[in-house]
Amino acid sequence: MISKMKYKRVLLKLSGEALLGNKLHGIDEKIVTFLANEIKKVYKKNIQISLVIGGGNIFRGTDAVSVGIERTTADYMGMLATVINALSMQSALEKIDVPTRVQSAISMSQIAEPYIRRKAIRHLEKNRIVIFAAGTGNPFFTTDTAAVLRASEVGAEIVIKATKIDGVYDKDPKLHSDAVRYDALNYDEVLKKHLKVMDATAIAFCRDNQLPILVLDYKEPDAILGAVCGETVGTLIKQRGS
To answer: Which of 50, 75, 170, 208 is found 20 to 30 A from 92 (Cα to Cα)?
Structure first.
């Protein structure tokens, strides 16, 4: 039975692909609605929660480079895709009476607030969900790096990375039936074993700032809520002994 909350402030990182659902491209309304309801369960427990959502379901900068678009331009295009996803999630959350604010690292005052750290923290203190969009506002940085940066800036106690699988494996469980799931790892193990959790910059940042990462399956009902309660869910990445 879920009872006591382990964390008071968390950041949830969703990939853009999570919003695809069964589609090949774009946004699946059913999965966005499902995720919004899962997030609401956390919100109703008075947990302060912020979000970072990737843009890979709409546009991926690294793919654009392969067809001749200059890297910096491609990355900015990818950032705009994250804003679309942020607005989609904002709409889904507010339909179920969850107050939100979208803050963008790229100025677009008609649709989002600019990212201001103190203002973001104030929103969280008022139990509003803050969705951080447009990555860090800089090319060459992924939304994984944006997530851990924003988490540290607003004082989140953990980054919850919601993926399509239920944790971190020693190899792709979709391709290898003998893949083994880790219950816990430290940052250096993730880097040395080249485990595809987050990019190396994000993992090193978490290591240097002692920010735990929990990887779980977003499709599992109550997984996110269970995680903030400290239940054994997914794979926890933190410094050994901490």
So the answer is: 75
168 assigned to some structural domain = yes
> Phi/psi of residue 89, each to 5°?
-70, -40
CATH number assigned to the domain comprising residue 26: 3.40.1160.10
pTM of structure: 0.94
Nearest to 36 by CA among 206, 162, 180, 195: 162
Give residue 168's domain range: 9-237
- What's the CA gap between 134 and 176, in Å, rounded? 35
Half-sphere exposure of 132 (CA within 13 A, CB side): 31
Q: Would the CA dihedral through 96, 102, 60, 163 be positive or negative?
A: negative
Name the domain count of the chain: 1
Q: Tell me the CA end-to-end span of the chain in Å, nearest whole number.
A: 26
**E strand intervals along the chain:** 9-14, 48-53, 100-104, 113-114, 129-133, 158-163, 168-169, 181-182, 184-185, 213-217, 235-237
Position 206 scores a pLDDT of 97
Handedness of CA 179, 220, 193, 139 (dihedral sign): positive
- For the chain, the farthest-separated pair of C-alpha atoms sits apart, in whole angstroms, at 53
Instruction: Read off the pLDDT of residues 194-236 as tens digits, 9 standing for 90 and up.
Output: 998 999 999 999 999 999 999 999 999 999 999 998 888 999 9
Would you say how long the chain is, in residues?
242
Q: Give dist(CA 65, CA 49) in Å, integer.
A: 34
**Is the distance from CB of 42 to CB of 82 less than 8 angstroms?**
no
